[in-house]
Amino acid sequence: MPVEPPLKLRLSRLTVTSLRNLCDAQKLSGWSNLKKDELVQFILKNLKPRVLEDFCTVQEEIYFVENMAKAIKWAGSRKVIELDPESDHTIANATFTLRRSDGYEVYNIRFVNQTTDDIGTSCECLEFREKGYFCAHQMATLVRCLQEGLFKLDRWTGPMTPEVEDIILANVFRKKRSRR
Ligand SMILES: [Zn+2]
């Protein structure tokens, strides 16, 4: 599994609402007027790393599951995810294109898998560049690569959880079989 980013980054990329819910659930006081940066500092100072790690892990799992549902839908469309035909299990390049009311959203995604134990994945979007998330665009690329047989789910060394693995097995592979 990839290395976890530091706690401060993991907290900073959550929404203010999530951070407030945490303070509330932990019965802290004196946080209601804090801006996001101050709220993160306050939480880091007042709660134990173990509590914060568990909280971030749960929030990250929710992000992964919610975005994977979108990603599976996108992966099914050749217009949204275009996989470079030269891609293989060592390097996969994809382009994500989504039409918006005010134009197009376009990002390039890249998976580099040249060592046996870790895979480097990246996307041009802010969710990845600023927050370090394995974003929905990368998830959609992963799903397409699995569909095309570039990677096997049980050999994938990038971000994964048992719950997301179940979602992929149920929605990607079952669907594929039933079409035949
Ligand atoms: Zn992205």
Question: Compute the gyration radius: what is it?
Answer: 18 Å
Alpha-beta content class: alpha+beta
Roughly what is the average pLDDT, rounded to an integer? 92
**Order of helical and strand elements:** HHHHEEEEHHH
Question: What share of residues is helical?
Answer: 40-55%
Envelope shape: elongated
Side by side, the strands of the main sheet go 1-2-3-4
How many strands, which pairing sense, and closed or not: the largest β-sheet? Answer: 4 strands, antiparallel
Give the termini distance in whole angstroms: 34 Å
Q: Note the beta-strand portion.
A: 15-25%
Number of domains: 2
Unique ligands:
zinc ion
General description of the model:
- With 180 residues, the chain is of the alpha+beta class.
- It folds into 2 domains: 7-47, no CATH class; 68-179, no CATH class.
- The chain is built from 7 helices and 4 strands.
- The protein has helices at residues 7-12, 16-25, 36-46, 49-75, 126-129, 136-147, 162-179, and strands at 81-83, 91-100, 103-112, 120-123.
- Strands 1-2-3-4 form a 4-stranded antiparallel sheet.
- A hairpin with a 7-residue loop joins strand 3 (103-112) and strand 4 (120-123).
- Helix 2 packs parallel to helix 3 and helix 4 (49-75) packs parallel to helix 7.
- The radius of gyration is 18 Å and the shape is elongated.
- The two termini are 34 Å apart.
- The mean pLDDT is 92.
- Zinc ion binds next to helix 5 and helix 6.
